[in-house]
Amino acid sequence: MKYRRIIRTGPSSVTRWRGLYPLAVIGRPHSPQRGAGSDSSMLPKRSTRMDASSLRPLIHNKLSAASRSPSESNCSAWCRNSATSCAQCCSLSKDCISVSCIRSPSPQKSDSLQYNAQQWVGLDMLGEPHYKDIDVDVNQEEGAMEFGIFFVRECRDRNFRKAYEEMIAQTEYAEELGFDSVWLAEHRSSDYGSMPSMPVPLAALAMRTKRMRLGTLGTILPLHNPLQVAAEYAMVDNLSGGRVEIALGRGYQPSEFASWGMELKETREKFWEGLDLMIRAWTAKEPLTFHGKYYRCENLDLRPRPLQQPYPRVHILTLSPETFELVARRGLDMAVTPTAMPFEMLKERIQTARRILVETGRTEDDISMPFLVQVHVAPTREEARRRTEESVRWYFSTLLRLIPRGYEQYEYFTALAEQFTGEVDYDMIVNNSISWIGTPDDIAEKIRVVRDELGIRRFVAWFQFGGLDHRYVMDSMKLFAREVMPEFRSPQVPQAPVTAESRA
Q: Are 16 and 118 in contact (CB under 8 A)?
């Protein structure tokens, strides 16, 4: 599909993005009159096809210096995209309204903490805006890898508004950088996560994006009435224009269930019954009556129905090794979160799951398997460590306190907890690829491995973990998009082979 970048310009010839709009939806509106100050040489003619990365230097180089002070004349309107730091090119950094410029050595604080698109650009529009359009081809070739971002929203300082606004700003930036999807995780009542509801933030992100898929990784289904979950996701699917994907899990943190008056031990039966009820509610051609062990409904006519028919793609979270085969035998897609799972074990589980899915009638090309891992990219390994070490230690020490022990259905987590005794070892976490932290070359090599040996085509990067500084997150995303992603946009993506060992 072709998308159009709508660019807003004013008399000062400063530009900013307005988002991606499908051409099939908006057509080709007539171009409004060009007012004084709009520079027609600044943009390519309408017939020109450009990739998004080529637009930034074009816009930057054409910024008018006439209406700006000498110290400001080299400062990019895309301050957070600039290759030159504010300290070098802008003596007005103390007054810069781009309060969250990731290049600034001392970004200004904002009482409102609003990290929205206008503040990120950092320049108010003067006079009446004018609009120009550029066609940008953002097609992905068949077989290319897809890349997403992920949030669980740990909130160490309990400044929840700031946490959510950073999430929105990072998502908007991810769409500019060319990421394909954004995924959210439900966790509640602890430092580990601050998103008890998935449809609420998904709806917010739907209003701030135009192209990205919107997914959950995932919703803890036993904590909800599945009919409410089905209705709310159907509504978000309509609001977003059919961009919703869902990953469901049964939960693994006893404290989450205890704090809401529930027990973890009965979640497996509730999960599968709830999933069955959701799918029936989405697809029933007549009012639905359902009498299960845990849930009931009488003459339900679910409204709205999902825009995607028969319903959005559903994945099941596979946090533990035993889940892979269980999910595959039901013919369902799975989302892979390989928390400290040894690579050879992970490889064997994925190969077995693929074989079983094919036996159930699925095709290799149709299997969706988002692969989630913590990622931080920096120019050097030393810089990556300096930025992330404290966040990694905090994250894993917090997680270990929440891992269930003694539950028969969570043997894997009990064994995992026993591996981590005492202080969290940063070097062990990084060297064993539990968190992927390093240079662009380091991260690209790891992606090649999961692509070639596991057949992964949907890679989800968890950029902000353990309370990592927002500026470092934005910088890591940019470096990942510019230095890592392009290699994997080629159409040659090997599928993980179904080996003789996995057939056994």
A: yes
Could you tell me the domains of the chain?
A: 2-137 (no CATH), 146-503 (3.20.20.30)
Cβ-count burial 17-56 (b if 16+ within 10 Å, e if not): bbbbbeeeeeeeeeeeeeeebbeeebbeeeeeeeebeebb
pLDDT at 451: 95
- Asked if 234 contacts 282 with a C-beta cutoff of 8 angstroms, the reply is yes
Specify the residue for token string 């669980």: 152
Rounded CA-CA distance 298/285 in Å is 14
Q: Which helix (H) or strand (E) holds 172?
A: helix 160-177
> What values do phi and psi take at 261, rounded to 5?
75, 30
| pLDDT tens-digit series, residues 135-153 | 223 445 556 899 999 998 7
Exposed (0-12), middle (13-18) or buried (19+): which is 121, by Cβ within 10 Å?
A: buried
At 80, list the tokens.
């957070």
pTM metric for this prediction: 0.69
Interatomic CA distance for residues 284 and 301, integer angstroms: 8
Q: How many CB atoms lie within 10 A of CB 224?
A: 20
State the residue for tokens 């709508």: 6
- Residue ranges of alpha helices (H) inside 27-85 are 52-61
Q: In angstroms, rounded to a whole number, what is the distance separating the alpha carbons of residues 227 and 231?
A: 6
pLDDT digits (tens, 9 = 90+) for 309-352: 999 999 999 877 778 988 999 999 999 988 767 888 899 999 99
List, for residues 356-380, the tens digit of each pLDDT value. Answer: 999 999 998 889 999 999 999 999 9
Distance CA 137, CA 119 (A): 27
Contact 269, 337 (CB under 8 A): no
Read off the pLDDT band of 251 (50, 70, 90): low
Quote the tokens at residue 320: 């533990």
Asked whether 237 and 243 are in contact (CB, 8 A), the reply is yes
Percent of the chain with pLDDT over 70: 60
Q: Give the C-alpha separation, 7 to 134, whole Å.
A: 8
Classified as helix, coil or strand, 119 is helix
Q: Are 312 and 237 in contact (CB under 8 A)?
A: yes
By percentage, how much of the chain surpasses pLDDT 90? Answer: 43
Mean pLDDT in residue range 426-444: 93
Question: Could you give the 3-state DSSP secondary structure of residue 317?
Answer: strand
